[in-house]
């Protein structure tokens, strides 16, 4: 191989930033599709389009080279973290936190097998799964990607899932046509950063290894072929550059012989490095750089450093050798193009009844009964009400990493064909027993009701946007419905959809029964399998789920436990009645400090909406296009994946960020904004509140091409009234990138007249 082609094997770009000409020229070792990338720029693309692109990548990377050098096909990796979750119509299994509650190793093998087959049908070779983080702080936005806070449970379930995805390494099924390459991630201690994504796991190294490193031992024994390195740090040292742990622990002590890959531009976070220039990561033990956008510059810098001897040829050959051994183990050199493989293009595999039945089984095994005052199971001959905005919402019940990276947003049930909502599952079960389930999302119905099931919980999220300052569940929709039904004398069942345990004592106190249903995925009927009994009230399935995380009694970061690890009631052994403390200091505390509206993502309890004339529409997580079509918010990368928003206007529109009701403003409040202006606005652009406006057009024109700018402007510039709304408005064409927007205490650094 030429040096140029060796360097290409060490680079992993995103499909959104490459052409097939690039694939043929640079001979990448592998490519990936990020959470918001899809064929032709369409992250909602149907399965056949993914297979078409897989064929194109195979053909471009297999194009003949000179007679002295063989062609080496590229591998394609995806984040299939709860099923082949980028593909509309795929089976969506419950997220890992739910599978931890199920605690069933055989089930994990079968889930891995089903997921692998669906991935292989689309021609993709590799999944960045499973996550074997041991999450120790539920505020972390990736808690639901962790099986448990218990190291041993994570180790067992992770190894079982790897065997399902790759096949048994001791059998002929290993990496055969129905299996794919798996990845154990993120090495290591990503779950030990005190709730901060990409944070620092600090403490005694031996203890950190015992808690967070141990799951990699059975993962390696199960034959995992690749390990993804964590964004996070260990005692202040970024893992992408941590040679003692990447080599000494992972290689020498654990005996891992496979390929290590980076996370999204994670190498660029090393001191002295950028996304396009970082020899230190390779020297520390990273084999492949995940560099979605800056791959061309990284290629050039690595090539120059190899020629200069900054990176020894021995190290390059070592990393390339690992990539080639992986491809040989996978049989890539003898496989035909993806569409000609055994299951390539077999669309009956995607979302098959057999796979959906496994997912349904996983849902019912994952449900955890926290309380039951004789309400459950419900007779299927009864007449019940099913309420809550989440009751008939397959997008919401599936959580993050569903078709798109963060999930939710503009996704609808049309993007999840074949999925069954919690309500639809309940309605079908009630009908079988001669009863009736009335959908009343807002709680309004007529006639009698023998019971009410209220489905509520978190909105979808993934990392960054999912991090929290505390554990208080603030959305009071479910609480209001429970109180309403209780006042009417109707027995209530709370079904809580969440990616982590949260402080829900108020809801627990109002409900007669409470079920932690996690993020069940596409097969909502699994909830009904356990909650709805026969016509005479006998249970069809009992609760078997046990908490894989302790449940907090308080709402702050550190709390005593209300329900311990391993807790879970059943019909055979009902949970004991208890009293709940319903006061939470985080709910009542005044906001004396910074109030973030947008910071790496839309802040908790801030609503984004766009008004244009008479049209008004919400933009969940500040992403998507307004109903008027004149405003679009897109995720862009500044310091991390999609941690900023590109705001674009093509006509008149007002972006309004609505503060949480009752938010107390800090003294001498000011607006702090961090932004980038790439082009002159074609119309006026203003900061707005519900009491005034401030024209910033001249300021934006002066800021064009000057990179990131920060300004603090007195809130009084927008009027004397304490605002309930802050935002931006344009009369026509305009564009600005927002990195953060907040209300802060202290004096403004810029005048109302600008520039700033």
Automatic annotation (TrEMBL):
GO molecular function list: beta-glucosidase activity
Protein known as: Glycoside hydrolase family 3 protein
UniProt keyword Hydrolase, yes or no: yes
Domain ExoP galactose-binding-like, chain residue ranges per copy: 624-721
Keywords for this protein: Hydrolase
Gene Ontology terms describing biological process: glucan catabolic process
Superkingdom per UniProt: Bacteria
Residue ranges annotated for the Glycoside hydrolase family 3 C-terminal domain, each copy included: 367-554
InterPro entries: Cellulose_Degrad_GH3, Exop_C, GH, Glyco_hydro_3_C, Glyco_hydro_3_C_sf, Glyco_hydro_3_N, Glyco_hydro_3_N_sf
Residue ranges of domain Glycoside hydrolase family 3 N-terminal in the record: 2-326
Annotated Pfam families: Exop_C, Glyco_hydro_3, Glyco_hydro_3_C
């Amino acid at each position: 191989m030429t040096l140029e082609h060796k360097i290409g094997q060490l680079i992993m770009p995103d499909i959104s930033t490459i052409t097939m000409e690039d694939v043929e020229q640079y001979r990448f070792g592998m490519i990936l599709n990020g959470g918001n990338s899809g064929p032709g720029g369409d992250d909602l693309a149907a399965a056949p389009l993914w297979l078409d692109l897989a064929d194109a990548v195979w053909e471009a990377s297999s194009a003949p080279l000179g007679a002295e050098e063989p062609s080496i096909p590229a591998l394609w990796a995806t984040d299939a973290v709860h099923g082949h979750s980028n593909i509309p119509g795929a089976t969506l299994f419950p997220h890992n936190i739910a599978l931890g509650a199920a605690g069933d190793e055989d089930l994990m093998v079968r889930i891995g097998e089903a997921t692998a087959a669906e991935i292989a049908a689309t021609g993709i070779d590799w999944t960045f799964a499973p996550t074997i983080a041991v999450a120790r702080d539920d505020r972390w936005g990736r808690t639901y990607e962790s099986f448990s806070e218990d190291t041993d449970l994570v180790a067992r379930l992770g190894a079982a899932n790897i065997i399902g995805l790759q096949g048994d390494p001791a059998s002929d099924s290993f990496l055969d046509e129905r299996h794919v390459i798996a990845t154990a991630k993120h090495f290591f201690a990503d779950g030990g950063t005190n709730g901060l994504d990409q944070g620092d796991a600090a403490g005694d190294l031996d203890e950190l290894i015992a808690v967070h490193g141990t799951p990699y031992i059975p993962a390696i024994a199960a034959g995992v072929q690749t390990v993804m390195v964590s964004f996070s740090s260990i005692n202040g040292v970024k893992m992408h550059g941590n040679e003692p742990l990447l080599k000494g622990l992972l290689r020498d002590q654990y005996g891992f012989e496979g390929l290590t890959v980076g996370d999204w531009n994670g190498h660029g976070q090393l001191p002295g490095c950028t996304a396009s220039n970082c020899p230190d990561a390779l020297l520390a033990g990273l084999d492949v750089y995940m560099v979605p956008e800056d791959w061309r510059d990284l290629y050039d810098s690595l090539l120059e450093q190899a020629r200069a001897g900054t990176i020894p040829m021995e190290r390059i050959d070592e990393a390339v050798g690992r990539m080639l051994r992986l491809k040989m183990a996978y049989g890539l050199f003898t496989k035909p193009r993806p569409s000609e493989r055994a299951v390539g293009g077999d669309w009956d595999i995607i979302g098959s009844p057999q796979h959906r039945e496994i997912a349904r089984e996983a849902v019912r095994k994952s449900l955890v009964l926290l309380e039951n005052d004789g309400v459950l199971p419900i007779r299927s001959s009864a007449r019940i009400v099913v309420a809550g905005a989440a009751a008939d919402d397959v997008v919401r019940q599936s959580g993050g990493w569903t078709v798109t990276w963060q999930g939710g947003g503009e996704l609808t049930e049309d993007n999840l064909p074949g999925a069954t909502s919690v309500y639809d599952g309940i309605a079908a079960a009630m009908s079988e027993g001669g009863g009736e389930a009335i959908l009343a999302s807002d709680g309004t119905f007529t006639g009698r009701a023998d019971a009410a099931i209220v489905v509520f919980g978190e909105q979808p999220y993934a990392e960054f946007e999912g991090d929290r300052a505390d554990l208080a569940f603030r959305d009071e929709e479910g609480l209001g419905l429970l109180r309403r039904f209780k006042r009417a004398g109707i027995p209530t069942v709370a079904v809580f959809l969440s990616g982590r345990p949260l402080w829900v004592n108020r809801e627990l106190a109002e409900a007669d029964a409470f079920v932690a249903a996690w993020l069940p995925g596409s097969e909502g009927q699994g909830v009904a399998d356990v909650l709805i009994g026969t016509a005479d009230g006998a249970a069809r399935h009992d609760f078997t789920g046990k908490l894989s995380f302790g449940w907090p009694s308080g709402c702050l970061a550190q709390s005593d436990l209300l329900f311990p690890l391993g807790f879970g009631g059943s019909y055979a052994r009902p949970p004991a009645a208890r009293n709940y403390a319903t006061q939470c200091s985080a709910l009542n505390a005044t906001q004396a400090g910074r109030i973030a509206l947008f910071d790496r993502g839309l802040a908790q309890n801030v609503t984004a909406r766009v008004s244009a004339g008479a049209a008004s529409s919400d933009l969940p997580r500040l992403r998507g296009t307004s109903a008027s079509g004149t405003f679009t918010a897109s995720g862009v990368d500044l310091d991390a994946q999609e941690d900023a928003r590109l705001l674009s206007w093509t006509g008149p529109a007002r972006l309004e960020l609505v503060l949480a009701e009752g938010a107390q403003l800090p003294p001498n409040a000011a607006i702090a904004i961090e932004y980038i202006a790439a082009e002159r606005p074609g119309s006026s652009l203003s900061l707005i509140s519900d009491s005034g406006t401030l024209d910033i057009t001249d300021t934006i024109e002066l800021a064009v091409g000057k990179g990131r700018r920060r300004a603090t402007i007195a809130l009084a510039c927008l009027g004397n009234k304490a605002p309930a709304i802050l935002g931006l408005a344009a009369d026509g064409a305009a564009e600005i990138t927002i990195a953060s927007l907040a209300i802060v205490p202290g004096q403004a650094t810029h005048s109302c007249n600008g520039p700033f």
